[in-house]
Design goal:
5-stranded antiparallel beta sheet; 59% helix; single chain
Length: 782
């Protein structure tokens, strides 16, 4: 029991034992199977070769006997004393010739009878068992009848004759003639009938098969008819043998094409026999020999029993060796388990009872690795936080560092900054930052910024410039290059920055814009140039996304203080709005914005806001003179324009506003009610987050009665104003649930709901689930 308990707790040891035992068993099974198969195959091959020799000898003997009969037939046919029987003999000649024929018969032990059919006088002369008064005399007439059938009996060939009623071969006939035709000319026929026992006795004398008492030789003609059969008591039924042989060697491609072969078959339906056959060349007779399968492979079966005893002994020995080897292999594992349980913190808590010892060790090791990684991460984070703090302080407040303090800080934190200077500073911003913030959470943004910093430091670190990157906790990163003295490094830095842009875009699909500062000779001037670089980065408005702005690129703008714009451009824009001519509006906007690209940034902003004022004042003037006002959200147009990142974006914004003005005026002209409905929708879409928004407030803004506003809206949209307000709030709440990490309550309040139960009820009525269920489903789907 103790041994079983010990093995039960040592799963890895059991696995070793089982694996080694299975391997041994597989090796034994495969090797013994291969040995037995090869031995059996070799035995059958040797048996086939031996039988081939026996069958060839049998075929030779039959051919030799046929040759003896042929020689005798020729001699008799040519014998002058017997020749008169084939002509027109007189009485005395018949007696002498018959006596001579009988004498020849008595000297041949293998003859059954001799028959001469005289075609001239129509007489038949027979000696032997077919003679007058002999036991088979009645069969002589059957022989003569067959001779009169013309070509039915072939010449000079042994022919099996069955002229009785028992279905067996009575004798083999050898027919001799010269011109045997149907016109019964003068030619006569000599027939020698051979005893079948003579042929079979010759076959039996060379029966060299295994187990002769249960083996036998058979002779079949070309049609598969049994001519001679063995007479041993243990042989199978000849008819069944005949059918089996006919099935195997009479098929196309197996008879004439394979004159010798063998097969194994249960002739009697129970015991298997090895059947060997030989097709004789001239007569096409089949000589067939059969032997019991177990007798042929008797030695192989005996060897198999011996092999089983040897294999069993070897298996027992291998099991003992496997147990010994498994314990030796398991000893290091057992010592390691004991050490882990003694000193490891995870101990039994990390062990999974459903697994083996190595799984336990793996769990302990994984737990230790996780703790080590956590410790390393914490250490790296602390080092990164400290180094970032000093870098951020150096960029934002460089005058506070003395030369000694800077050198000490660099040495302590391993910063790649040369305290002796010179420096360049680059501002790195993510294009469309507002959209980036909207689509990512804080952790993702931190990871992106960390990745950009690593990529920038790795690319720049491969070259002669030392570079440090620091997150300024705003919308940008700062890259600080230590370039030392010497030639201008700006072209090389711009090339590296371009490389950083390409890598980040390729891997993270983020577009970066960069701005390079003036050359900084002293570390005390870093903060000042940082401020200048921030101002320079605003000129991305001109150079666009993925731009790299250098001070040389900005000098024309910094020195240009002219603010004049073409007066006719402003006039064209005003006329286009009033005439609702979209082409004129687009042309006016284009001509007002084109000159701004050469202005100072302050004047660019002034020019953009001037375009906004032109649009707003024109709309205001038109609304004062119109019955149905044009409801355009020009109040936020200034903010929208300032939020754009490039002049191209601002131009597109103004073009969209112009198209909106064009569409609104066109729709206003078509339907006054549509303008009112659009105004109500615009008010709701712009103010749905206001908890106090209601039909009364909207009607007050429109200077209409609430009943009229509510009725017109209900007729047009088939829902009430309050329902539309709730619809807008619910759609925005769904968007926040999908994109923001706010709490449910924060989302509810941000979209204008003040009562939580009302919000939950309306949300479930609209979307079929509660806000919590909707958010949970979105998390699962991601």
């Amino acid at each position: 029991m103790k041994v079983l308990e010990a093995y039960k707790s040592k799963k890895y040891l059991r696995r070793i034992l089982l694996s080694m035992s299975i391997i041994v068993v597989l090796i034994l099974i495969v090797s013994s199977s291969v040995l037995h198969y090869s031995s059996e195959t070799r035995a059958l091959q040797m048996h086939e070769e031996s039988n081939r020799k026996v069958m060839n000898q049998i075929a030779y003997n039959i051919a030799y006997m046929e040759e003896i009969v042929a020689n005798l037939a020729v001699n008799l046919y040519a014998d002058e004393e017997i020749l008169p029987l084939t002509l027109n003999p007189d009485k005395m000649s018949e007696i002498r010739s018959t006596f001579r024929l009988n004498k020849k018969f008595t000297t041949s032990s293998f003859l059954h009878s001799i028959v001469v059919s005289n075609r001239n006088n129509g007489k038949t002369y027979a000696v032997g068992d077919l003679a007058v008064g002999a036991k088979d005399h009645d069969k002589a007439a059957a022989i003569v009848s067959l001779l009169k059938e013309g070509d039915a009996l072939p010449r000079m060939q042994l022919i099996p004759m069955d002229v009785g009623d028992d279905g067996s071969v009575d004798f083999f006939s050898f027919v001799m003639y010269e011109a045997y035709t149907e016109d019964f000319a003068s030619e006569s026929v000599l027939v020698l009938n051979i005893r079948p026992e003579w042929i079979f006795d010759n076959l039996r004398t060379i029966n060299d098969f295994t187990a002769p008492e249960r083996s036998g030789i058979y002779l079949l003609d070309e049609n598969g008819r049994m001519l001679l059969a063995g007479d041993a008591p243990g042989l199978p039924d000849p008819e069944r043998l005949r059918l089996a042989v006919a099935e195997r060697i009479a098929a196309p491609g197996q008879g004439a094409e394979r004159p010798f072969g063998y097969f194994t078959a249960p002739i009697d339906g129970e015991e298997d026999y090895v059947v060997t056959y030989l097709v004789m060349g001239g007569s096409q007779w089949r000589v067939v020999g059969i032997q019991p399968y177990e007798a042929v492979l008797g030695d192989i079966y005996a060897m198999r029993q011996t092999s089983l005893i040897v294999i069993g002994s070897f298996f027992l020995l291998s099991v003992l060796i496997s147990v010994f080897a498994a314990h030796k292999l398991y000893q290091p594992v057992e010592r390691m388990i004991k050490q882990i349980r003694t000193h490891g913190e995870a101990g039994d808590e990390s062990r999974d009872e459903g697994k083996d010892e190595l799984s336990y060790v793996t769990n302990v090791y994984s737990a230790m690795v996780r703790k080590l990684e956590i410790a390393k991460d914490e250490q790296r984070n602390r080092e990164h936080i400290v180094s970032n703090y000093y870098l951020r302080r150096l960029v934002a407040d460089s005058p506070s560092y003395s030369g000694e303090e800077l050198a000490s800080c660099i040495a302590q934190n391993g910063l790649k900054v040369d305290p002796a200077g010179s420096y360049y500073l680059a501002i790195v911003k993510i294009d469309d930052y507002a959209e980036f913030v909207k689509n990512t959470n804080y952790n993702d943004r931190s990871l992106y910024l960390f990745a950009i910093s690593n990529i920038a430091e790795e690319i720049c670190g491969k070259h002669r410039f030392a570079c440090e990157t620091v997150d300024m906790r705003s919308d940008h990163l700062v890259m600080l290059f230590s370039v030392g003295g010497g030639a201008d490094a700006v072209p090389r830095i711009v090339e590296l920055l371009k490389h950083v842009q390409d890598v980040v875009l390729n891997y993270y699909k983020l577009s970066l814009s960069m701005t390079l500062s003036e050359r900084i000779e002293r570390h005390e001037d870093i903060t000042e140039q940082y401020g200048h670089a921030l101002q320079y980065s605003l000129y991305k408005l001109i150079f666009g996304r993925r731009s790299i702005v250098t001070p040389d690129d900005l000098r024309p703008n910094l020195e240009h203080y002219e603010t004049n714009v073409p007066a006719d451009a402003e006039k064209k824009l005003v006329e286009g709005i009033k005439l609702n001519d979209l082409d004129k509006m687009d042309e006016g906007v284009k001509r007002l914005l084109e000159p701004l690209a050469s202005f100072h940034y302050d004047h660019i902003i002034h020019g953009v806001l001037h375009v906004v004022d032109v649009i707003k004042s024109t709309i205001r003037e038109m609304n004062n003179n119109r019955v149905a006002a044009i409801h355009i959200d020009v109040g936020s147009l200034s903010r929208q324009a300032l939020e754009q990142e490039t002049l191209e974006d601002i131009a597109q914004l103004f073009h969209r506003v112009c198209r909106e003005i064009n569409e609104k005026q066109r729709r206003t002209e078509q339907s006054k009610n549509e303008a009112l409905i659009d105004a109500i929708k615009d008010i709701v879409d712009a103010n749905f987050m206001d908890m106090n928004l209601s039909l009364q407030g909207i009607a007050s803004l429109l200077r209409m009665t609430p009943a009229y506003v509510g009725r017109m809206f209900k007729q047009s949209e088939m829902i009430s104003v309050s329902e539309y307000i709730n619809e807008a709030r619910l759609l925005q709440a769904r968007t926040f649930l999908e994109t923001k990490s706010y709490s449910i309550k924060e989302i509810m309040e941000s979209v204008g709901f003040s009562n939580e139960s009302t919000f939950f009820k309306l949300f479930k009525k609209k979307f079929g689930v509660t806000p919590k269920e909707y958010r949970l489903k979105q998390v699962w789907s991601k």
